[in-house]
Amino acid sequence: xxxxxxxxxxxxxxxxxxxxxxxxxxxxxxxxxxxxxxxxxxxxxxxxxxxxxxxxxxxxxxxxxxxxxxxxxxxxxxxxxxxxxxxxxxxxxxxxxxxxxxxxxxxxxxxxxxxxxxxxxxxxxxxxxxxxxxxxxxxxxxxxxxxxxxxxxxxxxxxxxxxxxxxxxxxxxxxxxxxxxxxxxxxxxxxxxxxxxxxxxxxxxxxxxxxxxxxxxxxxxxxxxxxxxxxxxxxxxxxxxxxxxxxxxxxxxxxxxxxxxxxxxxxxxxxxxxxxxxxxxxxxxxxxxxxxxxxxxxxxxxxxxxxxxxxxxxxxxxxxxxxxxxxxxxxxxxxxxxxxxxxxxxxxxxxxxxxxxxxxxxxxxxxxxxxxxxxxxxxxxxxxxxxxxxxxxxxxxxxxxxxxxxxxxxxxxxxxxxxxxxxxxxxxxxxx
Length: 432
Ligand code: SAJ
What we know:
The protein is an alpha/beta fold. The chain has two domains: 3-196, NAD(P)-binding Rossmann-like Domain (Rossmann fold), CATH 3.40.50; 205-432, Rossmann fold (3-Layer(aba) Sandwich). The protein contains 15 helices and 13 strands. It has an eight-stranded mixed beta sheet, sandwiched between helices. Strands 10-9-11-12-13 form a five-stranded parallel beta sheet. The chain binds ligand SAJ. The site of ligand SAJ has 18 residues, from helix 8.
Protein backbone atom coordinates (compact mmCIF):
# COMPACT_ATOMS: atom_id res chain seq x y z
CA UNK A 1 0.00 0.00 0.00
CA UNK A 2 1.25 3.49 -0.82
CA UNK A 3 2.13 5.94 1.94
CA UNK A 4 0.38 9.30 1.65
CA UNK A 5 1.35 12.54 3.34
CA UNK A 6 -1.67 14.89 3.55
CA UNK A 7 -0.68 18.50 4.17
CA UNK A 8 -3.43 20.59 5.81
CA UNK A 9 -5.85 18.87 8.23
CA UNK A 10 -8.88 21.11 7.77
CA UNK A 11 -12.37 20.53 6.35
CA UNK A 12 -10.97 18.78 3.28
CA UNK A 13 -7.56 17.42 4.33
CA UNK A 14 -8.69 15.56 7.43
CA UNK A 15 -11.66 13.74 5.86
CA UNK A 16 -9.45 12.93 2.84
CA UNK A 17 -6.76 11.50 5.14
CA UNK A 18 -9.40 9.51 7.03
CA UNK A 19 -10.95 8.05 3.85
CA UNK A 20 -7.57 6.92 2.48
CA UNK A 21 -6.57 5.49 5.90
CA UNK A 22 -9.84 3.55 6.07
CA UNK A 23 -9.00 2.06 2.67
CA UNK A 24 -5.72 0.74 4.09
CA UNK A 25 -3.19 3.42 3.04
CA UNK A 26 -0.56 4.53 5.56
CA UNK A 27 -1.31 8.17 6.20
CA UNK A 28 0.62 10.89 7.91
CA UNK A 29 -1.40 14.06 8.29
CA UNK A 30 0.49 17.33 8.60
CA UNK A 31 -0.68 20.59 10.11
CA UNK A 32 1.09 23.69 11.36
CA UNK A 33 -1.39 23.84 14.26
CA UNK A 34 0.12 21.80 17.13
CA UNK A 35 -3.24 21.46 18.86
CA UNK A 36 -4.77 19.82 15.78
CA UNK A 37 -1.82 17.40 15.61
CA UNK A 38 -1.89 16.48 19.33
CA UNK A 39 -5.65 15.96 19.35
CA UNK A 40 -5.58 13.90 16.16
CA UNK A 41 -2.91 11.61 17.58
CA UNK A 42 -5.34 10.90 20.44
CA UNK A 43 -8.02 10.08 17.88
CA UNK A 44 -9.87 13.37 18.42
CA UNK A 45 -11.23 15.78 15.83
CA UNK A 46 -11.80 19.52 16.26
CA UNK A 47 -13.88 20.17 13.15
CA UNK A 48 -17.58 19.34 12.92
CA UNK A 49 -18.48 16.87 10.19
CA UNK A 50 -21.00 14.05 10.16
CA UNK A 51 -19.36 10.65 10.80
CA UNK A 52 -15.80 12.02 10.91
CA UNK A 53 -15.04 11.48 14.65
CA UNK A 54 -15.94 7.79 14.36
CA UNK A 55 -13.77 7.14 11.28
CA UNK A 56 -10.81 9.10 12.70
CA UNK A 57 -10.98 7.23 16.01
CA UNK A 58 -10.99 3.92 14.19
CA UNK A 59 -8.08 4.66 11.79
CA UNK A 60 -5.90 6.28 14.47
CA UNK A 61 -6.44 3.28 16.77
CA UNK A 62 -5.55 0.96 13.87
CA UNK A 63 -2.29 2.88 13.34
CA UNK A 64 -3.29 3.86 9.79
CA UNK A 65 -3.45 7.61 10.46
CA UNK A 66 -1.09 9.68 12.57
CA UNK A 67 -0.35 13.40 12.63
CA UNK A 68 2.81 15.47 12.62
CA UNK A 69 3.79 19.15 12.37
CA UNK A 70 6.19 18.44 9.49
CA UNK A 71 5.95 16.42 6.27
CA UNK A 72 7.97 13.25 5.86
CA UNK A 73 8.93 10.94 3.00
CA UNK A 74 5.94 9.32 1.26
CA UNK A 75 4.85 8.02 -2.15
CA UNK A 76 2.09 10.60 -2.57
CA UNK A 77 1.71 14.12 -1.18
CA UNK A 78 -1.77 15.66 -1.09
CA UNK A 79 -1.90 19.41 -0.41
CA UNK A 80 -5.22 20.61 1.04
CA UNK A 81 -4.48 24.01 2.53
CA UNK A 82 -6.69 27.11 2.35
CA UNK A 83 -6.45 29.73 -0.40
CA UNK A 84 -7.86 32.82 1.31
CA UNK A 85 -8.72 35.95 -0.62
CA UNK A 86 -6.83 39.26 -0.33
CA UNK A 87 -8.60 42.59 0.28
CA UNK A 88 -8.38 43.32 -3.45
CA UNK A 89 -10.16 40.02 -4.26
CA UNK A 90 -7.08 38.25 -5.60
CA UNK A 91 -6.17 34.78 -4.38
CA UNK A 92 -3.62 34.33 -1.63
CA UNK A 93 -1.67 31.24 -2.71
CA UNK A 94 0.98 31.58 0.00
CA UNK A 95 -0.20 28.46 1.89
CA UNK A 96 -0.05 26.38 -1.31
CA UNK A 97 3.48 27.69 -1.89
CA UNK A 98 4.64 27.05 1.68
CA UNK A 99 3.10 23.55 1.70
CA UNK A 100 4.88 22.75 -1.58
CA UNK A 101 8.17 24.06 -0.17
CA UNK A 102 7.70 22.01 3.01
CA UNK A 103 7.22 18.85 0.95
CA UNK A 104 10.20 19.42 -1.39
CA UNK A 105 12.99 18.28 1.02
CA UNK A 106 11.23 14.90 1.32
CA UNK A 107 10.68 14.35 -2.41
CA UNK A 108 12.10 11.37 -4.23
CA UNK A 109 11.95 10.59 -7.93
CA UNK A 110 8.64 9.03 -8.91
CA UNK A 111 6.65 10.74 -6.13
CA UNK A 112 3.20 12.16 -6.86
CA UNK A 113 2.19 15.64 -5.65
CA UNK A 114 -1.52 16.47 -5.78
CA UNK A 115 -2.97 19.90 -4.98
CA UNK A 116 -6.61 19.75 -3.86
CA UNK A 117 -6.82 23.40 -2.74
CA UNK A 118 -8.91 25.66 -4.97
CA UNK A 119 -6.44 27.71 -7.00
CA UNK A 120 -6.51 30.32 -9.81
CA UNK A 121 -6.06 28.92 -13.32
CA UNK A 122 -2.41 28.24 -14.28
CA UNK A 123 -1.23 27.96 -10.62
CA UNK A 124 0.07 24.40 -11.16
CA UNK A 125 2.03 25.47 -14.26
CA UNK A 126 3.17 28.92 -13.13
CA UNK A 127 3.71 28.51 -9.37
CA UNK A 128 3.90 24.88 -8.21
CA UNK A 129 5.97 23.47 -11.12
CA UNK A 130 8.62 26.26 -10.93
CA UNK A 131 9.09 25.61 -7.17
CA UNK A 132 9.77 21.96 -7.91
CA UNK A 133 12.13 22.91 -10.74
CA UNK A 134 14.05 25.33 -8.48
CA UNK A 135 14.61 22.43 -6.08
CA UNK A 136 16.42 20.53 -8.81
CA UNK A 137 13.64 18.18 -10.00
CA UNK A 138 12.17 18.13 -13.48
CA UNK A 139 8.41 18.60 -12.77
CA UNK A 140 7.55 16.91 -16.07
CA UNK A 141 9.71 13.84 -15.55
CA UNK A 142 11.19 13.25 -12.09
CA UNK A 143 7.99 13.77 -10.09
CA UNK A 144 4.30 13.72 -11.07
CA UNK A 145 2.27 16.85 -10.34
CA UNK A 146 -1.53 17.14 -10.60
CA UNK A 147 -4.50 19.20 -9.48
CA UNK A 148 -7.54 17.35 -8.13
CA UNK A 149 -10.05 19.91 -6.86
CA UNK A 150 -12.27 19.02 -3.94
CA UNK A 151 -16.00 19.29 -4.65
CA UNK A 152 -17.72 18.18 -1.45
CA UNK A 153 -20.59 19.70 0.46
CA UNK A 154 -20.18 20.19 4.25
CA UNK A 155 -22.35 17.70 6.12
CA UNK A 156 -21.90 15.11 3.37
CA UNK A 157 -18.11 15.19 3.03
CA UNK A 158 -17.41 11.51 3.84
CA UNK A 159 -20.05 10.36 1.36
CA UNK A 160 -19.20 12.82 -1.41
CA UNK A 161 -15.43 12.20 -1.13
CA UNK A 162 -16.13 8.63 -2.16
CA UNK A 163 -19.15 8.92 -4.44
CA UNK A 164 -18.61 12.16 -6.39
CA UNK A 165 -17.00 12.22 -9.80
CA UNK A 166 -13.46 13.61 -9.50
CA UNK A 167 -11.45 15.64 -12.00
CA UNK A 168 -7.69 15.06 -12.12
CA UNK A 169 -5.44 17.27 -14.24
CA UNK A 170 -1.70 16.64 -14.36
CA UNK A 171 1.21 18.52 -15.83
CA UNK A 172 1.84 15.53 -18.11
CA UNK A 173 -0.45 12.64 -19.19
CA UNK A 174 1.62 10.32 -17.03
CA UNK A 175 1.16 12.53 -13.95
CA UNK A 176 -2.58 12.66 -14.63
CA UNK A 177 -2.83 8.88 -14.86
CA UNK A 178 -0.73 8.24 -11.73
CA UNK A 179 -2.69 10.78 -9.63
CA UNK A 180 -6.04 9.50 -10.98
CA UNK A 181 -5.06 5.95 -10.02
CA UNK A 182 -4.51 7.06 -6.42
CA UNK A 183 -8.13 8.28 -6.23
CA UNK A 184 -9.47 5.22 -8.07
CA UNK A 185 -8.54 3.14 -5.03
CA UNK A 186 -11.09 4.95 -2.82
CA UNK A 187 -13.53 6.73 -5.17
CA UNK A 188 -16.55 4.82 -6.42
CA UNK A 189 -17.56 7.70 -8.72
CA UNK A 190 -15.78 8.33 -12.01
CA UNK A 191 -12.26 9.79 -12.02
CA UNK A 192 -11.94 11.98 -15.11
CA UNK A 193 -8.54 12.77 -16.58
CA UNK A 194 -7.50 16.11 -18.10
CA UNK A 195 -4.68 18.72 -17.94
CA UNK A 196 -3.90 20.81 -14.87
CA UNK A 197 -5.26 24.12 -16.18
CA UNK A 198 -8.51 22.50 -17.35
CA UNK A 199 -9.02 20.94 -13.91
CA UNK A 200 -8.37 24.33 -12.27
CA UNK A 201 -10.85 26.08 -14.56
CA UNK A 202 -13.51 23.35 -14.21
CA UNK A 203 -13.61 23.64 -10.44
CA UNK A 204 -13.86 27.43 -10.60
CA UNK A 205 -16.56 27.33 -13.28
CA UNK A 206 -18.75 24.99 -11.22
CA UNK A 207 -19.10 27.58 -8.48
CA UNK A 208 -19.13 30.46 -10.96
CA UNK A 209 -22.03 28.83 -12.80
CA UNK A 210 -24.01 28.86 -9.57
CA UNK A 211 -22.96 32.41 -8.65
CA UNK A 212 -23.92 33.79 -12.08
CA UNK A 213 -27.27 32.02 -11.99
CA UNK A 214 -28.03 33.31 -8.50
CA UNK A 215 -27.11 36.82 -9.73
CA UNK A 216 -29.67 36.39 -12.52
CA UNK A 217 -32.31 35.42 -9.95
CA UNK A 218 -31.36 38.39 -7.76
CA UNK A 219 -31.60 40.71 -10.76
CA UNK A 220 -35.02 39.25 -11.50
CA UNK A 221 -36.02 40.04 -7.89
CA UNK A 222 -35.02 43.68 -8.34
CA UNK A 223 -36.77 43.94 -11.72
CA UNK A 224 -39.87 42.37 -10.18
CA UNK A 225 -39.89 44.97 -7.40
CA UNK A 226 -39.75 47.71 -10.03
CA UNK A 227 -42.47 46.20 -12.25
CA UNK A 228 -44.79 44.74 -9.60
CA UNK A 229 -44.20 41.09 -10.45
CA UNK A 230 -43.87 38.06 -8.15
CA UNK A 231 -40.44 36.64 -9.07
CA UNK A 232 -41.14 33.36 -7.26
CA UNK A 233 -44.17 32.72 -9.43
CA UNK A 234 -42.10 33.60 -12.53
CA UNK A 235 -39.37 31.15 -11.47
CA UNK A 236 -41.87 28.39 -10.74
CA UNK A 237 -43.55 28.77 -14.13
CA UNK A 238 -40.40 29.29 -16.20
CA UNK A 239 -38.80 26.22 -14.59
CA UNK A 240 -41.58 24.08 -16.00
CA UNK A 241 -39.74 24.46 -19.32
CA UNK A 242 -37.60 21.34 -19.72
CA UNK A 243 -34.35 23.25 -20.30
CA UNK A 244 -34.73 26.12 -17.81
CA UNK A 245 -33.48 26.10 -14.22
CA UNK A 246 -33.73 29.58 -12.73
CA UNK A 247 -32.11 29.80 -9.30
CA UNK A 248 -33.56 31.62 -6.28
CA UNK A 249 -33.11 35.20 -5.11
CA UNK A 250 -31.96 35.91 -1.56
CA UNK A 251 -30.08 38.37 0.65
CA UNK A 252 -26.80 37.67 -1.18
CA UNK A 253 -24.34 34.83 -1.70
CA UNK A 254 -22.09 33.61 1.08
CA UNK A 255 -19.78 30.75 1.99
CA UNK A 256 -16.15 30.27 1.21
CA UNK A 257 -16.72 28.97 -2.33
CA UNK A 258 -19.34 30.75 -4.43
CA UNK A 259 -18.53 34.18 -3.00
CA UNK A 260 -14.78 33.69 -3.59
CA UNK A 261 -13.96 31.34 -6.49
CA UNK A 262 -15.28 33.55 -9.32
CA UNK A 263 -12.71 36.21 -8.37
CA UNK A 264 -9.91 33.71 -9.09
CA UNK A 265 -11.01 33.77 -12.74
CA UNK A 266 -11.51 37.56 -12.85
CA UNK A 267 -7.99 38.01 -11.46
CA UNK A 268 -6.45 36.12 -14.37
CA UNK A 269 -8.61 37.51 -17.21
CA UNK A 270 -10.22 40.78 -16.04
CA UNK A 271 -10.94 42.10 -19.53
CA UNK A 272 -12.84 38.97 -20.53
CA UNK A 273 -14.53 37.90 -17.28
CA UNK A 274 -17.16 40.65 -17.47
CA UNK A 275 -20.30 38.66 -16.68
CA UNK A 276 -18.52 36.89 -13.83
CA UNK A 277 -17.49 40.22 -12.25
CA UNK A 278 -20.95 41.74 -12.77
CA UNK A 279 -22.57 38.71 -11.13
CA UNK A 280 -20.34 39.16 -8.10
CA UNK A 281 -21.34 42.85 -7.98
CA UNK A 282 -25.06 42.03 -8.23
CA UNK A 283 -24.86 39.42 -5.48
CA UNK A 284 -22.77 41.77 -3.33
CA UNK A 285 -25.46 44.46 -3.74
CA UNK A 286 -28.19 42.32 -2.17
CA UNK A 287 -27.49 43.19 1.50
CA UNK A 288 -28.01 46.88 0.63
CA UNK A 289 -31.19 45.99 -1.26
CA UNK A 290 -32.47 44.23 1.89
CA UNK A 291 -31.57 47.27 4.01
CA UNK A 292 -33.36 49.60 1.58
CA UNK A 293 -36.55 47.59 2.12
CA UNK A 294 -36.06 47.64 5.92
CA UNK A 295 -35.70 51.44 5.76
CA UNK A 296 -38.84 51.78 3.60
CA UNK A 297 -40.83 49.49 5.89
CA UNK A 298 -39.84 51.36 9.04
CA UNK A 299 -39.89 54.92 7.63
CA UNK A 300 -42.83 56.03 9.80
CA UNK A 301 -41.60 54.57 13.08
CA UNK A 302 -39.52 56.63 15.51
CA UNK A 303 -37.44 53.83 17.00
CA UNK A 304 -38.39 50.66 15.11
CA UNK A 305 -37.79 47.39 16.92
CA UNK A 306 -36.32 44.92 14.47
CA UNK A 307 -35.72 41.18 14.93
CA UNK A 308 -32.98 39.87 12.63
CA UNK A 309 -33.22 36.09 12.34
CA UNK A 310 -30.46 33.90 10.85
CA UNK A 311 -26.76 34.66 10.50
CA UNK A 312 -25.26 31.69 8.63
CA UNK A 313 -24.66 31.83 4.88
CA UNK A 314 -27.18 29.06 4.28
CA UNK A 315 -29.71 27.06 6.27
CA UNK A 316 -29.07 24.39 8.94
CA UNK A 317 -25.30 24.93 9.21
CA UNK A 318 -23.14 26.83 11.70
CA UNK A 319 -20.89 28.57 9.15
CA UNK A 320 -20.92 32.38 8.92
CA UNK A 321 -18.04 32.79 6.43
CA UNK A 322 -18.81 35.55 3.89
CA UNK A 323 -22.41 35.45 5.11
CA UNK A 324 -24.53 38.29 3.68
CA UNK A 325 -26.63 38.11 6.85
CA UNK A 326 -23.64 39.27 8.90
CA UNK A 327 -23.19 42.31 6.64
CA UNK A 328 -26.89 43.13 6.97
CA UNK A 329 -26.79 42.81 10.78
CA UNK A 330 -23.72 45.04 11.00
CA UNK A 331 -25.30 47.74 8.82
CA UNK A 332 -28.61 47.64 10.68
CA UNK A 333 -26.77 47.84 14.02
CA UNK A 334 -24.85 50.87 12.75
CA UNK A 335 -28.10 52.79 12.28
CA UNK A 336 -28.87 54.47 15.63
CA UNK A 337 -32.59 54.73 14.81
CA UNK A 338 -33.05 50.95 15.00
CA UNK A 339 -33.58 48.92 18.16
CA UNK A 340 -32.21 45.53 17.09
CA UNK A 341 -32.45 41.97 18.46
CA UNK A 342 -30.53 39.15 16.81
CA UNK A 343 -31.27 35.43 16.82
CA UNK A 344 -29.74 32.34 15.22
CA UNK A 345 -30.41 28.89 16.71
CA UNK A 346 -27.28 27.40 15.04
CA UNK A 347 -24.74 29.96 16.24
CA UNK A 348 -22.87 30.09 19.55
CA UNK A 349 -22.28 33.46 21.24
CA UNK A 350 -18.49 33.33 20.75
CA UNK A 351 -18.84 33.04 16.96
CA UNK A 352 -20.13 36.57 16.45
CA UNK A 353 -19.33 40.00 17.88
CA UNK A 354 -22.90 40.84 18.87
CA UNK A 355 -25.39 39.65 21.45
CA UNK A 356 -27.77 36.85 20.55
CA UNK A 357 -31.18 36.25 22.09
CA UNK A 358 -33.85 33.55 21.84
CA UNK A 359 -36.44 33.77 19.08
CA UNK A 360 -39.14 34.78 21.58
CA UNK A 361 -36.97 37.58 22.98
CA UNK A 362 -36.12 38.74 19.45
CA UNK A 363 -39.73 39.13 18.31
CA UNK A 364 -41.12 40.36 21.65
CA UNK A 365 -42.50 43.86 20.95
CA UNK A 366 -40.90 43.95 17.49
CA UNK A 367 -42.26 45.95 14.57
CA UNK A 368 -40.51 43.85 11.96
CA UNK A 369 -38.99 40.35 11.80
CA UNK A 370 -36.45 39.86 9.01
CA UNK A 371 -35.59 36.28 8.05
CA UNK A 372 -32.05 36.09 6.66
CA UNK A 373 -31.35 32.32 6.58
CA UNK A 374 -33.47 29.31 5.65
CA UNK A 375 -33.00 27.26 8.84
CA UNK A 376 -35.67 24.62 9.46
CA UNK A 377 -36.69 26.55 12.60
CA UNK A 378 -37.71 29.49 10.38
CA UNK A 379 -39.44 27.30 7.80
CA UNK A 380 -41.69 26.16 10.64
CA UNK A 381 -42.33 29.63 12.11
CA UNK A 382 -45.38 29.74 14.28
CA UNK A 383 -47.79 32.42 13.17
CA UNK A 384 -49.47 32.56 16.59
CA UNK A 385 -46.14 33.40 18.30
CA UNK A 386 -45.63 36.29 15.91
CA UNK A 387 -49.19 37.58 16.34
CA UNK A 388 -49.01 37.29 20.12
CA UNK A 389 -45.58 38.82 20.61
CA UNK A 390 -44.90 41.37 17.89
CA UNK A 391 -45.99 44.97 18.25
CA UNK A 392 -46.79 45.10 14.53
CA UNK A 393 -46.66 41.60 12.99
CA UNK A 394 -44.71 42.26 9.80
CA UNK A 395 -42.30 39.66 8.39
CA UNK A 396 -39.72 40.30 5.67
CA UNK A 397 -38.66 36.86 4.43
CA UNK A 398 -35.50 37.30 2.34
CA UNK A 399 -35.17 33.53 1.72
CA UNK A 400 -38.80 32.85 0.77
CA UNK A 401 -38.73 30.01 3.27
CA UNK A 402 -41.25 30.65 6.03
CA UNK A 403 -44.38 29.49 4.23
CA UNK A 404 -46.24 32.31 6.03
CA UNK A 405 -49.03 33.77 3.95
CA UNK A 406 -50.07 37.40 3.76
CA UNK A 407 -53.37 37.81 5.56
CA UNK A 408 -55.33 40.43 7.40
CA UNK A 409 -53.60 39.95 10.74
CA UNK A 410 -50.10 39.32 9.38
CA UNK A 411 -48.10 41.20 6.74
CA UNK A 412 -45.53 39.13 4.84
CA UNK A 413 -43.06 40.55 2.31
CA UNK A 414 -40.67 38.34 0.37
CA UNK A 415 -37.57 39.37 -1.48
CA UNK A 416 -38.89 38.41 -4.93
CA UNK A 417 -42.34 39.83 -4.26
CA UNK A 418 -42.29 43.34 -2.87
CA UNK A 419 -45.48 44.54 -4.52
CA UNK A 420 -47.54 46.63 -2.13
CA UNK A 421 -44.70 47.16 0.32
CA UNK A 422 -45.81 49.96 2.61
CA UNK A 423 -44.32 51.68 5.61
CA UNK A 424 -45.48 50.04 8.85
CA UNK A 425 -47.83 52.41 10.64
CA UNK A 426 -48.11 52.23 14.42
CA UNK A 427 -51.23 54.41 14.42
CA UNK A 428 -53.05 51.76 12.39
CA UNK A 429 -51.69 48.54 13.89
CA UNK A 430 -52.25 45.79 11.43
CA UNK A 431 -53.59 43.16 13.80
CA UNK A 432 -55.15 45.15 16.60
N1 SAJ B 1 -28.00 30.59 -2.89
C1 SAJ B 1 -28.94 31.50 -3.38
N2 SAJ B 1 -29.85 31.07 -4.32
C2 SAJ B 1 -29.84 29.80 -4.79
C3 SAJ B 1 -28.89 28.88 -4.30
C4 SAJ B 1 -27.97 29.30 -3.35
O1 SAJ B 1 -28.99 32.67 -2.98
O2 SAJ B 1 -30.70 29.51 -5.65
C5 SAJ B 1 -26.98 31.03 -1.92
C6 SAJ B 1 -27.00 30.31 -0.59
O3 SAJ B 1 -27.95 30.87 0.28
C7 SAJ B 1 -25.57 30.54 -0.10
C8 SAJ B 1 -24.75 30.52 -1.38
O4 SAJ B 1 -25.69 30.71 -2.43
O5 SAJ B 1 -25.42 31.82 0.50
C9 SAJ B 1 -23.91 29.28 -1.61
O6 SAJ B 1 -24.57 28.08 -1.25
P1 SAJ B 1 -24.44 26.68 -2.04
O7 SAJ B 1 -25.23 25.68 -1.30
O8 SAJ B 1 -24.78 26.86 -3.45
O9 SAJ B 1 -22.90 26.36 -2.07
P2 SAJ B 1 -21.70 26.08 -1.04
O10 SAJ B 1 -20.80 27.28 -1.10
O11 SAJ B 1 -22.14 25.62 0.31
O12 SAJ B 1 -20.97 24.83 -1.76
C10 SAJ B 1 -20.53 24.94 -3.12
C11 SAJ B 1 -20.96 23.68 -3.87
N3 SAJ B 1 -20.83 23.94 -5.32
C12 SAJ B 1 -21.84 23.74 -6.19
O13 SAJ B 1 -22.92 23.32 -5.86
C13 SAJ B 1 -21.52 24.04 -7.63
C14 SAJ B 1 -20.13 22.50 -3.42
O14 SAJ B 1 -20.39 21.35 -4.21
C15 SAJ B 1 -18.62 22.83 -3.52
O15 SAJ B 1 -17.85 21.78 -3.01
C16 SAJ B 1 -18.34 24.03 -2.68
O16 SAJ B 1 -19.14 25.12 -3.15
C17 SAJ B 1 -16.84 24.31 -2.78
O17 SAJ B 1 -16.11 23.90 -1.87
O18 SAJ B 1 -16.37 24.84 -3.78
